[in-house]
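Record type: monomer structure entry
Structure origin: computed from sequence
Chain ID: A
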Amino acid sequence: MRTPSGVALSLAVLLWVHESHAAPETQSSAPPPSPLPSGVSAVLWKLSVPASAAPTPERVALGEKLFNDKRLSLDDSTSCATCHDPNKGFTDGKPVAEGVKGQKGMRNSPTVLNALFNASQFWDGRSSTLEDQAKLPILNPIEMAMPSPEAVVTKLRGIPEYVTAFQAVFKRDITYDDLASAIAAFERTQFSGNARFDRFIHGETNALNASERRGWALFNGKARCNSCHAGNAVSPLFSDQKFHNIGVAAHKQDFPQLAREGVKVVRLGDERQIDELALQTRFSELGRFLVTKQENDVGAFKTPTLRNVGITGPYMHDGSLTTLWDVMDHYNKGGVANPYLDGGMQRLGLTEPEIDDLVAFVFTLTDERFTKFNGQELARQRARKGQRPERDTAVALGKKGNLGDLAPNPDLSVKNPADIGVYGTETLPKPASTKQP
């Protein structure tokens, strides 16, 4: 099959992103499992999983046990699964994460599903690998609260089953690095790409109903969602992996003053300090700035994947948007103005039926293993449609404010972007000929 130039370009970008975050010795890749779901790219797998971190069955089993073990926390009350529940799409359904003694952080728990493909981890990208990410919550004072890596290792060495398991898997005594490697191995098996959308984009035209298809057209047109959440065969996460200030927290903070204070406090490269600032202090709202100290990163947070978004609310880095209707309202009015608002934010002029169609579409991005839960969440969110704190129709439609012109609305009678298939071909089947040869 000839690879379209757009595919080659996208793969080149992905290769650059992942290699820029990889250590020199991890450039060779692990072979992808077979078969992969239709929405998971084997090429992206090879870019994302180094051979040295291949998720062997033994490492995965140990990692799953550690992921679910509350004994990794100071008071035996909290595990990784507390905030990343497999039954809830590896999230917790809460606005912000809750750790030991019921302490609440400042950030929403992102899903672990497809985290192996992320170019960076956490909302602000402060960790570059799953291994680095796995280490920090265990030590954060309001998450699992263990005082040090040494304390974690000492505790595990007092549990005979772990002494035996680590020796069998790693052929040595327990280390904190090996603990992180095991958890990361388990997380690398949590890929997701078996949604109704995947069946549609590969040619099953009836996989989406009329409303959902209209939503897909809007997603790629008037709603401009694909500016940051493009979805196709080589960008299957519906995320550009970049960081944007979309104004979610602008009404809470004086960003310029907060940034000036942050410059004096943040120590570049001190991952543990940044982790604590992100979860325990008002500096959390500075986002990517905590990592880079670059002014253009003030209030910028990573574009999350839209896969399984129907079941992974509430939404945004602080969990402040309860439903996907709230999310659409936020974007429809162009976000919330602040000095660092991303230049791509502008009013969208979406009507209520168009918002309904967009929400219907994004619910098709949920893995079919969660079909029942997805339906329950859609019903729950739809029941809240009357509660719309982010809604500002006058701004969205240009009746007040000055937030730019609307994106073009494609003429669907000429070409519907929802009909474009996985390799740029139309998914709609041609009518079968009834003539005899």
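Annotation 1: Residues 196-249+299-399 form a domain with the Cytochrome Bc1 Complex; Chain D, domain 2 fold (CATH 1.10.760.10).
Annotation 2: The beta strands are 243-244, 301-302.
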